[in-house]
Amino acid sequence: MASVTLTSINKKFNNLSAVKDLDLEIRDGEFMALLGPSGCGKTTTLNMIAGLDVPTSGTIRIGDRDVTNLPAMHRDIAMVFQSYALYPHMTVERNMGFALRVRGYESDEIDRRVARAAEMLSLGDYLKRHPRQLSGGQRQRVALGRALVRDPQVFLLDEPLSNLDAVLRVQTRAELSSLFKNLATTAVYVTHDQSEAMTMSDRIAVFSHGQLQQVGEPLEIYRAPANRFVASFVGSPPMTFLDAMLTDDGKLAAGDLRLVAPPALQGLRPGEKVTLGIRPEDVQLVPDGLAANADIVEHLGSLQIVYLALSGQRVVAQVVEGSQIRRGDALQARIEPAKLYLFSPETGKAIYTPGRDGGRLPSHLELSK
Ligand SMILES: Nc1ncnc2c1ncn2[C@@H]1O[C@H](COP(=O)(O)OP(=O)(O)O)[C@@H](O)[C@H]1O
Ligand SMILES: [Mg+2]
């Protein structure tokens, strides 16, 4: 186990800045997700930690060793790739033991480690098979097994679940999560899937265009996003954003919609423009709220997503399926002022958020944790 410390890291590919001024510490034993859309620099960051890419500037430490210029094989890390990268002509057993053989381990020791990893991953019955004789989920576990036998100081995983179908992905996510909790080893996990990051991680580092936007625990990222990008990338269905203005009587006006502003708004004066954010689960359909019309209704099984027209504004609400809402229904909606999010329209920076204490993770995420 070891911490990983990235200091002032920049990575350029010709003229393209793939990673900009990155400072990030992954703590000893921590499971850290690098989250962001395709092309934001996640894999490049992971590859630099692995030693597969060299930073243009900056330093990388693993524990107290400066590894910036150390070749990959001396870093004591193990990487799991999106493509699995298994050797097709080798059995599962040989695939899993390969890195140890290359490093000159005794065959007894290799057998012992492979058997232990196979047991942890329920691969015992498949050791004599070749990769082509395995399902996608089993191949993924072999790729993980190959990393586990190394017993590295740091695990690096690049979208390891992205080739699995939706059901298997959620199941494997839970298994991986519990495996890493038991191992208590430092892990850096790259994903573009916010629900993976939210459910598996101790902390999440959110990236956009090569720049770190925020580092925090899942609930902090969700309820206290640093800016509009983080708020919009995390949460499903996504947050509704409205252009609004603070009125003289302490309300937020978005077109004809008037909402009571959150308490303790500091530094904001009447007439100032803000971007208002509303999480779908914070819209309550109650008998004594603002008039709302259900424009579109989607059924997700246990939940309903309702696209409301609220004084001419489109606001998305998420309610339990039992509410039996139909398209065209006249409803009433309420949004607690303290649950609103406000951002600067110019910089996107958060002006007000409910904060960590302002709520719980959505139930569909908590259930799978
Ligand atoms: N070897 C490379 N040569 C040139 N550009 C690259 C190379 N690797 C990555 N990039 C570019 O760097 C940016 C970040 O890529 P990457 O780290 O793979 O993103 P992510 O993993 O978040 O999808 C992208 O614009 C990508 O096209
Ligand atoms: Mg990538």
Layout: helices, strands, pairs:
Blueprint: E1 4-13, E2 16-26, E3 31-35, H1 42-50, E4 57-62, E5 65-66, E6 77-80, H2 92-102, H3 107-120, H4 136-148, E7 154-158, H5 166-183, E8 186-191, H6 194-200, E9 203-208, E10 211-216, H7 218-223, H8 228-233, E11 240-246, E12 251-254, E13 257-260, E14 273-278, E15 283-299, E16 303-310, E17 313-320, E18 330-335, E19 341-343, E20 350-352, H9 363-367
Parallel strand pairs: 3-8, 3-9, 6-7, 7-8
Antiparallel strand pairs: 1-2, 1-4, 4-5, 9-10, 11-12, 11-14, 12-13, 14-19, 15-16, 15-18, 16-17, 19-20
The protein binds adenosine-5'-diphosphate (ADP) and magnesium ion.
Residues 13, 16, 18, 36, 38-44 line the site of adenosine-5'-diphosphate.
Strand content: 25-35%
Bound ions, cofactors and other small molecules, one mention each: adenosine-5'-diphosphate, magnesium ion
Q: Percent helix among the residues?
A: 10-25%
The radius of gyration computed from the alpha-carbon positions, rounded to a whole number of angstroms, is: 24 Å
Taken in chain order, the helices and strands follow as: EEEHEEEHHHEHEHEEHHEEEEEEEEEEH
CATH superfamily of the largest domain: P-loop containing nucleotide triphosphate hydrolases
